[in-house]
Design brief:
The protein is of the alpha/beta class. The chain has helices at 9-14, 41-56, 118-124, 152-160, 162-169, 177-182, 195-207, 211-227, 229-244, 247-257, and strands at 16-22, 25-31, 62-67, 107-111, 114-116, 128-132, 136-138, 175-176, 188-190. A six-stranded mixed β-sheet has the order 1-2-3-4-6-9, sandwiched between helices. A three-stranded mixed β-sheet has the order 5-7-8.
Amino acid sequence: MANSNKKTKADDNAGRVVTEAKGHIFLIGIDRPGKLNAFNPKILGELAEAYTAFEADPELRCAVLHAVGDHFTAGMDLREAEFKAELFPVGLVDPFDLRPPWREKPIVSAVHGICFTIGIELSLATDMVIAAQDTRFSQLEVKRGLIAFGGATIRMVERAGWGNAMRYLLTGDEFDAETALRLGFIQEITAPGDQLTRAVELAESIAKLPPLAVKAMRLSSWTAVRQGPAAAVDQFRELVTSTTASEDFEEGVRSFLEKREPIFTGR
């Protein structure tokens, strides 16, 4: 995983994933603009490493997925792609959020320009998506004789309903940011160039909140989607007990009574 701003000719050709910690925020950037940020095995592996590092660091509370250059990604690099069921290294956090080890912390994604295939699937796997007005979307695997297997067939149906999802899954047609917003694939539209700033703003607002409560809120919602509402209800007692026993809960109540801004530590 690359953490340096220094870039070599090899990086230009093969691409890399760049990361940067800013306080409690972790920036994860796809950096292969000369190839429209097309994904290859190297970038896939580094992305999984970045997600795993984010999960492992207790000081990091929210991440932002973004891309360098004029486009988020044109999709998989068909000249280098290895089409197999496990695109990401087993044992690391799956950026598609389809297999364990499961991600527990929130991620906001910022997309712009071309956002095709794996770009849509990665953003749908995050917790919210901010898109520039000029973003062009397409889940076009069907046009190449492929199936989308990074979660699009699941999450597009969840968010948009059967007919709306099939409209784009079965045709591979492009759609714009307004359509993506209407269908629930993204949450906000910004002026071109402002998407990353807005995503960081949202991440910072999340990072100021008690981390245990944020994780619990996300886990409850995740359980409801994956296992059904009944399973989420059964989990309430456990999550309420764990959050109310935390120092952050005490700080939240104390700061409210003392009429001051809370300082949450994650304990």
